[in-house]
Specification:
twelve-stranded antiparallel beta sheet, 21 strands, 2 helices, single chain, mainly beta, seven-stranded antiparallel beta sheet
Length: about 325
């Protein structure tokens, strides 16, 4: 075959993503380009998808063939997933958009963000995400809501996150006016994490024994569809939300972990990460352990403990998860 066969390949490292701290003021309307301010570092293997759903007559008889002869486009759908290393800005961003409520204190930086589940509405906090996937594929996904978030705390290095989104199918094609400058990143480090567990209001540090933790929030978010909406959804609706964690703790010669499972003891769990001027606190005020399993780390015995939404309780309106993030961002979830 005649050549040439060369082409301009596209590097993963050249992809760009721009986020906004704001939620959309209205479904179907993108956040204004002037408010798309956060150039986000991310794993370049991130996948954001635009797909179509079609009706076909393949299953019907009377066509003279077993194959389809006609199709109709019935829906456009958007979704996405990305992961990366967790800095103080992104910690508040993913928690605020997943949980729905951010109360800010501080007249100037550093600001403290108290983030909790908003149970007053079933409408997810929707936002817009700009992607430059190749030199010529530049688009903004609209009405994106978080489906779930996973935060992992390692022994060393930055905490990591993975977040999944669903959208209504709305998007705009083309570049934003300007790509924001890369901001400075204040990473949250696993080596700065103090994990504590104990009676509510009297937790005990497990520093030295705490090996790793994974915390997951699921919003149950779905694209709400109904007759009369054309090919797109109306908005992103939250479902029954879920919360869970898994933590590994080195065992000692005294039984301070298995006894909590045996005796079905009410506990509080807390992860506090202070990395310089930035911090993240994740507190579950009232819970019981779902499981306590013996495991091994090399030649060391470890306990693998876990709990979930059926064992994490909202006692006296204390909340099931109270997150506090200190960073230099003044606000999240402002309608724009």
């Amino acid at each position: 075959m005649a050549g040439p066969y060369n082409f301009e390949s596209q590097k993963i490292s050249a992809r760009n993503m721009v986020l906004t701290p704001n939620k959309q003021a209205a479904a179907g309307t993108a956040v204004a380009g002037a408010d798309m301010l956060r150039r986000q570092k991310f794993d370049g293997a991130a996948v954001f998808e635009l797909k179509t759903t079609r009706y076909t007559d393949k299953a019907l008889a009377g066509k003279g063939t077993e194959f389809a002869v006609q199709s109709l486009t019935t829906a456009w759908e958007t979704s996405g997933t990305f992961k990366g290393d967790l800095d103080d800005y992104m910690a508040a961003w993913i928690l605020a958009f997943a949980m729905g409520k951010d109360v800010v204190t501080g007249a100037a930086a550093p600001y403290s963000h108290a983030i909790t589940f908003d149970e007053t509405t079933t409408q997810a906090c929707m936002t817009s995400i700009y992607l430059a996937d190749t030199a010529d594929v530049l688009w903004t996904l609209i009405d994106m809501g978080i489906v779930d978030v996973t935060i992992t705390i390692p022994a060393r290095g930055p905490l990591t996150f993975e977040v999944n989104f669903v959208g209504t199918g709305h998007f705009t094609y083309g570049a934003i006016a300007a790509l924001p400058a890369m901001p400075s990143y204040a990473y949250l480090l696993g080596s700065d994490c103090v994990f504590s567990i104990g009676a509510p209001g009297a937790t005990v540090s497990k520093v030295g024994r705490h090996m790793s933790s994974t915390i997951k929030i699921s919003t149950g978010a779905v694209n709400h569809t109904a007759p009369g909406l054309g090919l797109y959804g109306a908005f992103i609706r939250t479902g029954l939300r879920k919360l869970s964690f898994q933590t590994t703790i080195a065992a000692t010669n005294a039984d301070d972990i298995f006894t909590l499972v045996r005796n079905d003891t009410l506990q509080e769990a807390n992860w506090t990460i202070d990395s310089g001027a930035s911090s993240l606190v994740l507190d579950m005020p009232n819970l019981k352990l779902k499981a306590g399993k013996i495991g091994a780390s090399g030649n060391m015995v470890v306990w693998q403990i876990e709990s979930d939404e059926n064992n994490i309780y909202d006692v006296a309106s204390a909340g099931v998860l109270n997150a506090t993030v200190v960073n230099s961002q003044a606000s999240y979830l402002v309608g724009a």
